[in-house]
């Protein structure tokens, strides 16, 4: 199973945050100030910035395998999916919690 990590950073001020990350060499790939989110490419890593009232970080994974197959695999291992949801920007998602209670989201990776 191949997973690709793409952290999602919730920021209070998107307009101020974009130039901050650009100082590290990040480039805007998708989105913008008007969309409420941006996808940044920073070397080999992609980071999503989302405008939000409360700052924080979410772990978001892109899966190379079909989500229904991954859901069955996790369920058989004793890790139930908390929710199967559809996100306007990311598509279908599996949402579950780690043993420590951290929420993670998994979507089907493009390509």
Describe this protein's structure.
It is a single chain. The protein starts with a strand and ends with a strand. The model has no long low-confidence stretch (mean pLDDT 89). The protein is of the alpha+beta class. The protein has a single domain, classed as 2,3-Dihydroxybiphenyl 1,2-Dioxygenase, domain 1. The longest helix is centred in the middle third of the chain and has 10 residues. Strands 1, 2, 3, 4, 5, 6, 7, 8 and 9 form a nine-stranded mixed β-sheet that branches.
Give the helix/strand layout.
Layout: E1 3-5, E2 8-11, H1 14-22, E3 27-32, E4 37-42, E5 45-51, E6 56-63, H2 67-76, E7 83-87, E8 91-97, E9 103-108
Parallel strand pairs: 2-5, 6-9
Antiparallel strand pairs: 1-6, 2-6, 3-4, 4-5, 7-8, 8-9
Quick gist of this model?
The chain is of the alpha+beta class. 17% of the residues lie in helices and 47% in strands.
Question: Which structural traits does this protein have?
Answer:
single chain, 111 residues, alpha+beta, 2,3-Dihydroxybiphenyl 1,2-Dioxygenase, domain 1, nine-stranded mixed beta sheet, 2 helices, 47% strand
**CATH homologous superfamily assignment:** 2,3-Dihydroxybiphenyl 1,2-Dioxygenase, domain 1
Compute the average pLDDT. Answer: 89
Report the portion of residues in β strands: over 45%
Instruction: Report the count of strand segments.
Output: 9
CATH architectural designation: Roll
Rg calculated over all Cα atoms: 15 Å
N-to-C SSE series?
A: EEHEEEEHEEE
CATH secondary-structure class: Alpha Beta
The largest β sheet comes out as:
9 strands, mixed
Task: Classify the secondary structure makeup into a structural class.
Answer: alpha+beta
Percent in helix: 10-25%
What name is given to the CATH topology? Answer: 2,3-Dihydroxybiphenyl 1,2-Dioxygenase, domain 1
Shape: elongated
Q: Count of helices?
A: 2
Count of the domains: 1
Low-confidence stretches: none
Termini Cα gap:
15 Å
């Amino acid at each position: 199973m191949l997973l690709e990590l793409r952290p999602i950073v919730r920021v209070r001020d998107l307009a101020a945050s974009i130039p901050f990350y650009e100082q590290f060499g990040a480039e805007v790939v998708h989105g913008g100030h008007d969309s409420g989110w941006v996808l940044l490419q920073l070397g080999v890593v992609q980071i999503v910035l989302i405008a939000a009232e409360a700052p924080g970080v979410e772990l978001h994974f892109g899966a190379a395998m079909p989500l229904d197959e991954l859901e069955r695999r996790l369920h058989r291992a004793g890790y139930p999916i908390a929710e199967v949801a559809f996100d306007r920007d990311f598509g279908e998602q599996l949402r579950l919690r780690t043993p420590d209670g951290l929420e993670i989201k998994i979507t089907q990776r493009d390509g």
